[in-house]
Amino acid sequence: MNRDASKVWSTTCRILSEQLSKDLFERWIAVISPSRIEGDTLYLSVANDFYLGWLEEHYLPLIQDAMKKSCGRVMDIKVEVDGNAPPVVTRETPDPESKKKSLYRQVFKKKISLNPKYSFENFIVGPSNHFAHAAALAVAQNPARAYNPLFIYGGVGLGKTHLMQAVGHHVCRKNNKDICYISTEHFINKYVEALQRKKLVDFRKRFRNIDILLIDDIQVLSGKDGMQEEFFHTFNALFENHKQIVLTCDRPASEIPKLTERLVSRFEWGQVTQLEKPDTETRIAILKNKSEEMNIALPDDAIQFIAERIRSNIRKLEGALIRLSSFVSLTKRPLETEQMEQLLRDLIEQERQSSLSIESIQKSVAEYFDIRLADMSSRRRPKSIAVPRQVAMYLCRSLTDSSFPEIGEAFSKNHATVLYACRAVEQMMERDKLLKSSVHAIKQRLSA
Ligand code: ADP
Ligand code: MG
């Protein structure tokens, strides 16, 4: 640690500790350690990506302000992940379990880095995640005997990583198994590193001899043929030795572009389960649970306000919660609706953009081509109707995060028809300039 850095940081912390509640300070600031100053940049480090993302998203401006006050000049701040940074859990309440807990943490630190908050206890169950939760719990209770592999898919911020790590925590507490949690990207980096250092044998020994492999964001394998080959063998070795594999993905395996067929089929061997967007009650329950966990007291109408406006991503729900509560603890003023709207403006705007509905696309396409809205789901086949319908399906696929079956349902077609339509429109656009510009024009109307 560089001495200047730690001096600047400690005065900055003093200012921040006056501005933030004790809890927020301990949760988000005390976990940071100063690393060095280079030129006009102060480098800070945190233990994992979770903190990195959170700090960048919510605390950087505040930190920057405090630093300006503390050292009288504007400095850039760069936050980095450093695996050796101080432990991620900072609030130590001594209790009889604490010795056990710290031992438990040590095991984690050595073997795997699991976020302590991503446990089953902290996972709120509702209709959107009921099956995925049940499947994950079954796997955690009976590794390699319930479902193998377990394939969890769903959109960003819907709890895939959380659920997967919950399996890790559960198993870790119960048995002495060798668990590996790794993102696919990290797995690839390790592989490349092993290749360069001629340590492939070690790499294989490591990954083919674990009891439970939790591999996150498997869609990253798309288009990486060599890596797919390697992972195929890792998968087989584990599977044949009755070791548990859990995978997460942002879409169904069959929709990962450029993924070898034999991996697609393996991913579908066991249990495939989806995380969907939570309904309002679940969102409220999640917000209440998070407030409790973070020791935040927000009035019910603020919770309601957030839950009604932020629907598609649980990480953003949390972001909104922190923002409002930081505001309250900074200003000590009650929250008016206008204030909340202003504080969450960008999140609400993102939500509006992402909530383009299938129906609004159908309407817009029908208007553009001057056909009846009812024809979007009719069985009529003249080209003057069939092509616009295909365009609408294509736009639904590219502009919303609906799956093929969901789109199919809205058009009274099956998912194969939607898949076919999307490919057909892509090909037509390459040949047909007029169609291409029509599609472009509709997109513009939709974003207006
Ligand atoms: P993904 O991996 O699908 O992008 P994450 O697992 O990282 O999403 O979840 C994003 C955030 O939302 C995390 O902070 C997680 O704890 C929280 N979260 C997601 N689902 C739930 C749930 N059902 N109950 C409580 N928190 C949840
Ligand atoms: Mg994730």
Describe this structure in words.
- The chain is an alpha/beta fold and 448 residues long.
- The chain contains 21 helices and 8 strands.
- The protein has helices at residues 3-19, 22-29, 49-58, 60-71, 98-111, 130-141, 160-174, 184-196, 200-208, 225-240, 261-267, 280-293, 300-309, 314-331, 337-343, 345-354, 358-369, 383-399, 404-410, 415-431, 433-447; strands at 33-38, 41-46, 76-81, 150-154, 179-183, 212-216, 244-249, 271-275.
- The strands form 2 sheets. The protein has a 5-stranded parallel β-sheet, sandwiched between helices.
- A hairpin with a 2-residue loop joins β1 and β2 (41-46).
- α13 packs antiparallel against α14 and α18 (383-399) packs across α20 (415-431).
- The longest helix is centred in the C-terminal third of the chain and has 18 residues, at 314-331.
- It is globular.
- Mean pLDDT is 87; it is low at 85-111.
- Adenosine-5'-diphosphate binds at residues 118, 122-124, 129, 154, 156-162, 286, 314-315, 318.
- The site of magnesium ion (MG) has 3 residues, from α7.
Notable characteristics:
8 strands; 448 residues; alpha/beta; 21 helices; binds magnesium ion; binds adenosine-5'-diphosphate; globular; three-stranded mixed beta sheet
